[in-house]
Design brief:
alpha+beta, four-stranded mixed β-sheet, 2,3-Dihydroxybiphenyl 1,2-Dioxygenase, domain 1, homodimer, about 40% strand
Chain lengths: ~140, ~140
């Protein structure tokens, strides 16, 4: 049986791609891989691709030169969690404060990891989590 | 400035956690890390944590011994993409067919990677993608 190597692409659906891109790049330090009217793909440390789709713009099949992508879309303030180094935890708290991003809560996990939670411009619930949250991380 | 190491947790919101878990474990081969009435966390090859939340069950603050998690929820058939080895592409097509999962489309990407698309029991649009889809992958 084949096995999945990783989960490589995570999608968030946003009301204004430019606003979201500014937040993810200027505040969280991500870099744009590709951007058009419909979506933006952001690089997360060469390991993951965060896709920001304009809400409602992918409800029809997307036709590309190499094939088609079936419809997809989403709403609601969904959750995504970014890995950070524990040593950077205070620096992230300072950086979010400096950018006017409110930290909504913290969690100390049984395995020793810790998390903080905040929201992106669309209300998505983002988490920064250090090693020690999961048995695998 | 600190930097994000990875995107580690991806969330999907589902109508029946048990049904979704059976699909992700029995068909896609993922393993349960933790499961309760509200959600299930699945391991993706030790690299990523896929969170399946019961839709509507996280709309209030979740209180844990170590802190609180603010509300989150989602609807709509959102997208997520799993990394696979190119050599396993035919095996994945066979496995999906054997499990009655329809492959909806394929894409051949300019960099040489290829993808196939299908849906999970909640209609989420899943992709299996080989290396060569992104400049980073």
């Amino acid at each position: 049986m084949p096995s999945l190597s990783d989960l490589k692409e995570t999608a968030l659906y946003v009301d204004d791609v430019d606003v979201a891109v500014r937040f993810y790049c200027d505040v969280l330090g991500l870099a744009v891989l590709i951007q058009d009217q419909r979506f933006c793909a952001l690089d997360v440390n060469g390991r993951h691709v965060l896709l920001l789709f304009l809400r409602g713009a992918s409800c029809e099949t997307t036709t590309l030169p190499g094939g088609t992508i079936p419809p997809h879309d989403g709403s609601g303030p969904i959750h995504a969690g970014f890995a950070i180094e524990d040593a950077d935890f205070p620096a992230w708290e300072s950086l979010l404060a400096k950018n006017g991003v409110a930290v909504l809560s913290h969690v100390n996990w049984p395995r020793g990891g810790r998390s903080l939670y905040f929201r992106d411009p669309d209300g998505h619930l983002l988490e920064l989590l250090t090693p020690g949250v999961w048995v695998t991380y």
